[in-house]
Backbone:
């Protein structure tokens, strides 16, 4: 038996590595990877004391996940900016996660071929691609690693009531939360395990089981508050004005059925699925479908308890990401199925194993092999789309032509390759689909400026600032356009506006210093002093409420600029 278990462990681990090994030749992509690695100065410095402090105190990227930041720093320390190595680290962690799932299943249900199949399908299902292959989603595989460790130690604690096991649960839960705050759902899953298959609820009152979870809940509350703070600072949280309750209801109901459908038929997989407003009745029909499935599962709970357990795991695990609290502009994401699909796998495979007749059971091994081969084939066919930015977003646009995010990122890629007309075409497609979204407008303005079509660029930027007056990129780019048009005072004003929004607006800061140095050399002749009273008034107001007392050179430079008005009066 021990040799069989070890063989299964090695099989799951090596199969996962083999299926995902092609990613060793893949590149970074331009969606979030610059934020997480390639343009993040703290991460690119490697593992430093300053970087570790930053990881725990920063809301960079509208997220708080210090352990994920530190893992990227370790990668840089070990491998530099080699994308293949970064990819393989994520694959390695995912392979460990698949093994951990097998160990958890063996603890919960005793060793069986069904457990092996669950672990294999979990490991190689095409919906794992986004979590494993997208370097920015290191937080996903890392959080899952510690979540599964917490679940394993919780089962151990429940069976032995050891204080050491309990403390390990707290530790692993906290590490999972530090990797990605979505792990706050784990205490609810612990309670679900108490119901089935641990059956602790028969021996211990529900109130005592909840009290037992208080340290877990406190850790989750702390990390939830940090996550809300980070999302609030980054503008990720969407209000009811942005997404009304009826629209969210439709999206939630359709979302649950979408995750269920993609579990069985992982078709039309991309990287970003835009939020949709459905026709009247669609959400209600989906809700009725969820109720019908829930009723059927509930009616079979006595005969097939693992089916109800798996369905509840699926429903509960999706609560944080399904849309009750809307974050960003996506309706759903493949990566969000990472934890929920464990429940579906447990429910579906154990149900099949228990429900099929004896005459069919002799074919279960053949069926398992066919399922495994099919998933390997489909995952391997999907992997090449993630090779680089262009292939990924071309594929996403092919399956979702009105995907504004895909058009925007493909345009950004073409812009980086100096293919300006191709970039403009993609940005215009994004604007046509989502005119309320400022990023493609800002990027299109940037392309027009690079083409020296400054008036067109300025017109676009004015539209962006009308929608989002504190948009740092739009403010900076507006300043740059005015600078190229020779309107240096206006350029200075817009760069100062960008810098006042955030001290992380380094391009604006550098531009301000450069302009002020030119002012010191060339004098007031470079500033448009006539008919500029309003601009000088804003400049003086900014000087009077100067928010950065340590930045003396810039303050002195602004004082020099103000003297230009005095000399012109």
Residues:
């Amino acid at each position: 038996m021990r040799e069989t278990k070890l063989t299964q462990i090695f099989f799951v681990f090596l199969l996962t590595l083999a299926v995902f090994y092609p990613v060793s030749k893949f590149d970074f992509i331009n969606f979030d990877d610059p934020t997480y690695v390639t343009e993040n100065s703290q991460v690119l410095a490697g593992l430093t004391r300053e970087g570790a402090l930053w990881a725990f105190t920063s809301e960079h990227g509208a997220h708080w996940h210090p352990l994920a930041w530190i893992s990227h720093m370790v990668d840089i320390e070990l491998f530099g900016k080699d994308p293949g190595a970064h990819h393989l680290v994520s694959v390695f962690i995912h392979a460990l996660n698949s093994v951990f799932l097998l160990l958890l299943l063996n603890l919960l249900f005793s060793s069986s071929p069904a457990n092996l199949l669950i672990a294999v399908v979990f490991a190689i299902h095409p919906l794992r691609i986004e979590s494993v292959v997208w370097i920015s989603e290191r937080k996903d595989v890392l959080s899952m690693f510690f979540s599964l460790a917490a679940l394993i130690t919780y089962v151990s604690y429940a069976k032995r009531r050891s204080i050491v096991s309990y403390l390990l649960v707290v530790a692993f839960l906290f590490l999972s939360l530090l990797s990605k705050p979505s792990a706050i759902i784990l205490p609810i899953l612990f309670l679900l395990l108490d119901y089935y298959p641990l059956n602790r609820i028969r021996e211990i009152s529900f109130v005592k089981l909840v009290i037992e979870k208080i340290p877990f809940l406190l850790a989750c509350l702390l990390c939830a508050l940090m996550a809300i703070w980070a999302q609030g600072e980054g503008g990720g949280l969407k209000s009811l004005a942005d997404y009304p309750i009826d629209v969210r209801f439709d999206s939630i109901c359709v979302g649950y059925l979408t995750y269920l459908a993609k579990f069985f038929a992982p078709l039309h997989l991309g990287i970003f699925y835009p939020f949709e407003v459905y026709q009247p009745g669609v959400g209600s029909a989906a809700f009725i479908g969820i109720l019908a499935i829930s009723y059927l599962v509930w009616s079979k709970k006595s005969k097939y308890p693992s089916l109800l357990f798996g369905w509840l795991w699926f429903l509960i695990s999706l609560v944080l990401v399904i849309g009750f609290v809307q974050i960003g502009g996506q309706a759903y994401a493949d990566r969000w199925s990472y934890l929920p699909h464990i429940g579906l796998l447990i429910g579906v495979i154990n149900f099949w194993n228990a429900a099929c007749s004896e005459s069919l059971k002799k074919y279960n091994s053949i069926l398992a092999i066919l399922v495994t081969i099919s998933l390997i084939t489909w995952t391997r066919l999907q992997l090449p789309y993630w090779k680089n930015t262009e292939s990924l977003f071309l594929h996403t646009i092919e399956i979702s032509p009105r995907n504004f995010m895909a058009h925007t990122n493909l345009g950004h890629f073409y812009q980086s390759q100096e293919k300006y007309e191709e970039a403009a075409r993609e940005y215009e497609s994004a604007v046509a689909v989502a005119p309320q979204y400022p990023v493609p407008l800002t990027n299109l303005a940037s392309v027009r400026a690079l083409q020296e079509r400054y008036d067109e660029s300025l017109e676009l930027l004015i539209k962006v600032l009308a929608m989002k007056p504190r948009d740092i990129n739009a403010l900076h780019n507006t300043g740059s356009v005015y600078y190229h048009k020779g309107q240096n005072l206006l350029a200075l004003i817009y760069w100062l506006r960008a810098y006042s929004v955030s001290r992380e607006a380094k391009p604006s800061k550098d531009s301000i210093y450069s302009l002020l140095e030119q002012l010191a050399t060339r004098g007031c002749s470079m500033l448009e002093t006539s008919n500029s009273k309003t601009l000088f008034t804003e400049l003086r107001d900014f000087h009077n409420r100067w928010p950065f007392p340590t930045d003396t050179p810039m303050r002195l430079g602004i004082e020099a600029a103000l003297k230009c008005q005095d000399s012109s009066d």
